[in-house]
Structure formats: structure tokens, C-alpha cells
Amino acid sequence: MTDRPIVVGLTATFIGLTALLAVGGVVVHPVLLFVAIPFGAAAYLLSLHARGRLDDRIRSRTVSRAATRQRERERRARDRTRRNRTDAFGADARGTERGRPGGTSAAGRRRAGAAGGGDRMGLEAAYRTLGVDPDADEETIKRAYRERAKSLHPDAESGDEEAFKKLTRAYDRLTKR
Questions:
Q1: Is the keyword Membrane in the record (predicted)?
Q2: pTM for the structure as a whole
Q3: DSSP state of 34
Q4: Domains observed in the chain
């Protein structure tokens, strides 16, 4: 439908109306300038259509937006897959334990083992350590941790450093799912 006389005629008409309204807006009343804006936009779109470029622009923008949305969906799916791919010990797909700089690589396990924190805790053990049910909500878990931490903290009279570390690992395991 390029170079059809009716489209070219409408384009010329809208360009003329835009010019007339713009001049009227300067000479008579500034409100006419705002009225000229839609006529100018219509003239622009008709000129694109008359030259055959409107379809090309719409098609290219639609394709690029669809491709962008598809890439974004794929990125979100990859992120969800990475977050969901954790083993029973809290290690993610890259082999690093969440929230731990040493990770679960062989070197990280050796460092953790040398430091005395080498046991990786599963969900069941974490619930047992905190003394809560598996269907406990986050507030209950937090309350149980605080109560046990008061008695096990190394600065307390009956404090046990190893038991406190185990309690902290259990709390981290249950709150960072």
C-alpha cells in the first residue's frame, strides 16, 4: 500500500492542518498548539505508512520485544533452576554451600573440617537440633533458636561452643532455604 494517492493525500492534509494549527497557536491562542500535536502525530504515522516503513517498524519492534521477553523468561528460568538445585546439605549447583565462603569443594571441606565445622547438616538434623517440628514456621524457628542460644552461647555459664556452632548451623540451614 505504498505510494497510494489516498494515503499521500491524507498525509498532505494532516501536515497542512498541523501547520495551520501551529501558526494559529502562536498568533491566536496557545491552546491550538496542543491541538496541533495529534494532527502532527497522525501526519507522521501516515507519512511512514505512505513510504512503507510503518509495517517494517512495527514488525521489527514486535520481534525485538518478543525476543527480549523470551530472553528474560529464559534467564528467570535458569535462576529458578539454580536456586532449586540444592542437595540435602545446602550446596548449590556450583558446589558451593550457600552462605559459606569455603563451599563444599574438597578444599572447602578440608578447611571446614580443619576448623572444626565440617559437618554439613540436613533438614531433619536441623529440625532435631532446634527441637521444632518440620512444619514449624519461621517465627517458631527463630524463637526456638533464641531460647537455645541463650543457654548454649559460649559466654554463658553453661555454654558449649561446639553445641552453639551446631545450633547456629541448624538455624542457618532452616532460614536460608
A1: yes
A2: 0.34
A3: H
A4: 5-84 (no CATH), 86-119 (no CATH), 121-175 (1.10.287.110)
